[in-house]
Amino acid sequence: FFFPQVLLLACAEDLACVPGFQQKVFYIEQPFEFTEDQPVLNLEFDDCKGNNKLNFEVSNPDFKVERDGSLVVLKNISEAGRALFVHARSEHAEDMAEILIVGANEKHDALKEIFKIEGNLGIPRQKRAILATPILIPENQRPPFPRSVGKVISSEGTEGAKFRLSGKGVDQDPKGIFRINEISGEVSVTRALDREVIANYELEVEVTDISGKTIDGPVRLDISVIDQNDNRPMFKEGPYVGHVMEGSPTGTTVMRMTAFDADDSSTDNALLRYNILKQTPTKPSPNMFYIDPEKGDIVTVVSPVLLDRETMETPKYELVIEAKDMGGLDVGLTGTATATILIDDKNDHPPEFTKKEFQATVKEGVTGVIVNLTVGDRDDPATGAWRAVYTIINGNPGQSFEIHTNPQTNEGMLSVVKPLDYEISAFHTLLIKVENEDPLIPDIAYGPSSTATVQITVEDVNEGPVFHPNPMTVTKQENIPIGSVVLTVNATDPDTLQHQTIRYSVYKDPAGWLEINPTNGTIGTTAILDRESPYVQNNKYTALFLAIDSGNPPATGTGTLHITLEDVNDNVPSLYPTLAKVCDDAKDLRVVVLGASDKDLHPNTDPFKFELSKQSGPEKLWRITKINNTHAQVILLQNLKKANYNIPISVTDSGKPPLTNNTELKLQVCSCKKSKMDCSATDALHISMTLILLSLFSLFCKSFP
């Protein structure tokens, strides 16, 4: 393997010290392979002031420049591209050198052959007279400006010819960044560049005559901005919160931290490395976690035993994470973020009663909570691994007890849901177990402390007597004689061990019809029972009675009596309406339709029988005709004079025996003119048919002594 030959393309024109690379363009032959640690060529940089703090940067990361200027290969590579660019910077100067790489079959000693290098050299393959070599400019250059960055060469020697530069950065926005000396072709930049804003400029250069007419070109001029490490890494996706289950194996991945660097991702300027700067708290180990320096993955590094949530000061850890560019070198820029890691609970601690036996006392007949059972659980109170579930597993055959969890305290609230009876059992023993909502992990089981006994003592209470049955029902006919026996009630005292006596009294008797013997409980009537009374609803009369024991203080029981009353035909029918009007010249002599009603029930009501009392006189004036079982029609047999008439009518129900109501229908005969009825004078002309008949009968009797 041979060292590449080097061809000098440009050199200093005199012996005076010119700051920068003393040779700016190199030509090397592409070998079969670049070998690791192989020196390629020597670069000479001189800032004319001692090269203090000299630093080199190479565009290809597979190469580096040593302090003495040697270009060295960092690893075996077969392809390095068509060009390398080396940027040098010291306290007093900076400059760029270009290294062109060509194949072995290309001529080494002819400058025109260099101009035939293809695409990625940025030198177009053409036979024009303009040579526009790509220009590389470091970003963030310091003043003074304008600063020369390159030169365009033309082989044409036309008198008065001028260079003209155009494109984005010249006469297009952002305007005025670059300009060209129209005579010498020297290209200069007018201000500092920012690669993160614009990384490449594609300009065009042409040669014009004195009149401004293009005589050569345009030719493309590429300007690339070389990245400087001027952007710190940034964490943009926060907040960063990760979770890991307690007891997780060493090496468990918790979360990934990712930072962003705006610098060139193909350079070390954006090559990030991660590190944990601080962990809070520092117990049980100051190094609970590790971060992969390249990927940013945070993993656990302590044993599962130390990752125990219940023994930690707090289940929350905060890590200050640093991201540093330049591959983590000391010269790199840094950015930080805080990662919060929460140690999640798993159900590795069963709940345990605070004592093996609990005591409770409850009065008989009372319901509600009688005791709160307390438990301890070391798991996270915000999870199902802490929340308790209680079960009565023995001693509750009658389902008199229930237990529920208090969601705030996790206590078991034991309640009586069915009243207890001292006389049946004065003591109860319950066996209760407690579990978690979530299942325990496989290697943990519920132990003896997860069950407890509750001893319940029932206190005797003076209970009120109880009626048997309650309510009590009986059926009686209405109108039974006063003093009749309705029923004898029976009440017993649940306090069988106290041997108490019972006395009775009336509590509620809305109609005042009843009385009760205070000693034997016999209920009798003090008034007539009336089924038609407003105190009777649906044929049923209701009264309440008390049974009072002899305890101190006495206890009372209430009994309800329902008396169903059977109907008796004790109400005469009523007739409606009782007033009718008719015109004295009426053509329709059907005066009125009469209806009858009865407060009694069938068969003591309809069908009703309607009749007129006997009519006296030379001719009959009206008649009555049955329409149906409850209605009849009164019809005049001739027109009558204007007057008031009382028509005697009797209506009889169908009861056994039947009852008859004799009543009168008042009939007003009025004058009617122009559809108006005038009954005003009928009172003065009032004629009672009964009086007329009586008068006629009296005269008849006087005529025949």
Automatic annotation (TrEMBL):
- Source domain of life is Eukaryota
Q: Record's InterPro entries? A: Cadherin (IPR039808), Cadherin-like_dom (IPR002126), Cadherin-like_sf (IPR015919), Cadherin_CS (IPR020894), Cadherin_pro_dom (IPR014868)
Q: Does the keyword Cytoplasm apply?
A: yes
The name under which this protein is listed is: Cadherin-13
This protein's assembly is summarised as: By contrast to classical cadherins, homodimerization in trans is not mediated by cadherin EC1 domain strand-swapping, but instead through a homophilic adhesive interface which joins two elongated EC1-EC2 domains through a region near their Ca2+-binding sites to form a tetrahedral, X-like shape.
Q: Where in the cell is it found?
A: Cell membrane; Cytoplasm
Q: What does the function comment of this entry state?
A: Cadherins are calcium-dependent cell adhesion proteins. They preferentially interact with themselves in a homophilic manner in connecting cells; cadherins may thus contribute to the sorting of heterogeneous cell types. May act as a negative regulator of neural cell growth.
Q: Residue span of the signal peptide, if any?
A: 1-17
Q: List UniProt keywords, sorted A-Z.
A: Calcium, Cell adhesion, Cell membrane, Cleavage on pair of basic residues, Cytoplasm, Glycoprotein, GPI-anchor, Lipoprotein, Membrane, Metal-binding, Repeat, Signal
Q: Name one GO molecular function term.
A: beta-catenin binding
